[in-house]
Design goal:
Layout (H helix, E strand, L loop, with lengths): L1 E4 L8 E7 H5 L9 H12 L10 E5 L4 E8 L6 H17 L4 E5 L9 H12 L20 E4 L4 H22 L7 H15 L2 E5 L1 H6 L3 H7 L7 E7 L10 E12 L8 H4 L7 H16 L4 E11 L11 E3 L5 E3 L7 H14 L4 E6 L3 H7 L3 E6 L2 H14 L2 E4 L5 H6 L7 E2 L7 H10 L7 E6 L5 E2 L9 E2 L4 H10 L1
Parallel strand pairs: 1-6, 2-4, 2-5, 5-6, 9-10, 9-13, 12-16, 13-17, 14-15
Antiparallel strand pairs: 3-4, 7-8, 8-10, 11-12, 14-17, 18-19
Helix pairs in contact: 3-4, 4-5, 5-10, 6-10, 8-11, 10-16, 11-15, 13-16
The protein binds ligand BES, manganese (II) ion and zinc ion.
Zinc ion binds next to strand 9.
């Protein structure tokens, strides 16, 4: 793929034009456009075939190629996220119509900050689909778009957008793989491959080492599967490691398949549970981008990976497990496994004494019930970090909602008569219960955020920058956050 600054409109397959309602009402805003394109657009608007309303997208066949008109709605409500999604739609559609290139007209939108970045991200993501297992028959529409031209093009910003996009594709590609391909061991191999390629350090702990290191909660969750658990630690250090301004650790839930274990899930709930490793895949995607963006901070990624399966060797309801920090946990539901694998990993991450820990996990159905498929739960023990993350999320376009981490009644329900904690509470407040459980394993004086991405991890239809399947939700906000430091 390639981008070039536009010099001539000759031989261009497709034109992309994003317009607000105001642009359509006041046609003088089109003055900067190529006269041919302006004339066509004006006549379509005058004929009332296009009015710039949000969601109103039009493909206009030209003598050569197509014109894609995209409605952004009211200017006041328009933001960079809508622009990015609209661009992705247009570029994807152009590619499917076998366009080789597209000219994206943006200069009339220059009051929006970050257009080149959004264009890079949209261009990088628009062609992605998880189709490697599909037969390429005549109904299959391969993606053809390889070049784009734009009247507003800042190369560095565009490349940064591409790096963000590639991180998301890396994460999606892994998360989309089924459980028969990605298990804890093959996930570890992927991490090692990535580290090797990007010049990162990578250490993998096998069962033996996990036992020696008291990672008993992770071991318990993995004990029912013939695919043994793994703890993966991947590290980025800036060239001048002593001068690093901060140390950040990301922790990802890497359940490569969640059957529920002995507390087995009903069939319709088990489907899509290959996606229960999304947190871990996201952490790898973030590490990949970090290796390319080279920020002046130390970044650690911990992936806590197991397969949650029922068998004669599974951990059981009623079992009592001692986590790495010595706290004991009574298991009252083997399907509440994510918090267990995260518990040990949070202890481990805390031992590095980082300034910030951010964990990402498809943790609770309750969070998806509360917030839906387009907004993740954000739990933070530090207001300053919360504000920074919410600010990053505004820029990234991923939506979060800050959830409470103080609740004396739910805290009370964490207590077990036989151990320090139980791993699951009642249905009500399930996402808060899980977050309060995790908090028990975060070291003192560490700013910590927990992102519950259950529900947002998977798209059941194509939309904007998203294709069907894994979304890599979380990657963009974390990268924005890192870049803001
Ligand atoms: N991986 C699931 C949560 C999940 C649900 C992710 C739906 C994505 C979509 C998690 O391990 C789980 O099973 N949670 C249980 C917890 C309960 C047993 C306390 C849940 O949410 O039902
Ligand atoms: Mn589960
Ligand atoms: Zn799970």
């Amino acid at each position: 793929m390639q981008i070039k600054h536009i010099e001539s409109y000759a031989q261009i397959d497709s034109q992309v034009l994003l317009l607000t309602e105001e642009d359509c009402e006041n046609l003088s805003s089109l003055n900067g456009l190529d006269s041919n394109l302006r004339d066509i657009t004006e006549s379509i608007i005058k004929r009332k075939d296009f009015d710039g309303k949000k969601g109103k997208n039009l493909r206009v066949p030209l003598i050569e190629g197509n014109l894609y008109l995209i409605g952004l709605g009211k200017k006041k409500k328009c933001n960079l996220n809508l622009i990015r999604d609209s661009l992705a739609w247009a570029l994807r559609t152009a590619g499917r119509n076998h366009a080789k290139n597209a000219a994206v007209n943006l200069s009339h939108l220059k009051s929006f900050d970050g257009l080149s970045f959004a264009l890079g991200e949209a261009f990088g993501l628009c062609g992605y689909v998880f189709d490697k297992y599909k037969k390429k028959d005549e109904h299959y529409e391969p993606f053809a778009l390889t070049e784009i031209y734009s009247d507003l093009y800042e190369p560095e910003e565009f490349s940064r957008g591409l790096i963000f996009a590639e991180a998301q594709i890396y994460s999606r590609e892994l998360a989309n793989e089924p459980g028969c391909v990605i298990n804890p061991e093959s996930l570890a191999q992927e991490a090692e491959k990535l580290a090797e390629k990007c010049g990162l350090e990578c250490e993998v702990w096998n069962e033996e080492r996990l036992r020696a290191e008291n990672m008993n909660a992770l071991l318990a969750v993995g004990s029912g599967s013939k695919n043994p658990p793994r703890l993966i630690h991947i590290t980025y250090k800036p060239v001048n490691a002593e001068k690093a301004t901060k140390k950040i650790a990301f922790v990802g839930k890497g359940i490569t398949f969640d059957s529920g274990g002995l507390d087995i899930k009903p069939d319709n709930y088990m489907l899509t549970m290959k996606g229960d490793k999304t947190g871990a895949c996201n952490v790898l995607g973030i590490m990949k981008a970090v290796a390319e963006l080279k920020p002046n901070i130390e970044v650690h990624g911990f992936l806590s990976s197991a397969e949650n399966m029922p068998s004669g060797s599974s951990y059981r309801p009623d079992d009592i497990i001692r986590a790495r920090n010595g706290k004991t946990i009574e298991i009252n539901n083997t399907d509440a496994e994510g918090r267990l694998v995260l518990a040990d990993a949070l202890c481990l991450a805390s031992e590095l004494k980082p300034d910030v820990i951010i964990d990402m996990a498809t943790l609770t159905g309750a969070c998806a019930v509360a917030l839906g498929n387009w907004r993740a739960g954000l739990f933070v023990n530090d207001d300053d970090l919360a504000e920074k993350l919410l600010h990053s999320s505004e820029r990234s376009g991923e939506a979060y909602w800050r959830m409470p981490l103080e609740d004396e009644h739910i805290s009370e329900s964490l207590k077990s008569p036989f151990a320090d904690l139980v791993n699951a509470g009642n249905r009500y407040g399930g996402a808060i219960f899980a977050a309060l459980f995790l908090k028990e394993f975060v070291g003192e004086n560490i700013s910590w955020a927990h992102m519950d991405i259950a529900g947002t991890d998977f798209r059941d239809k194509e939309y904007g920058i998203y294709s069907k399947g894994a979304s890599a939700f979380g990657v963009r906000t974390c990268l924005e956050y890192i870049m803001s430091l």
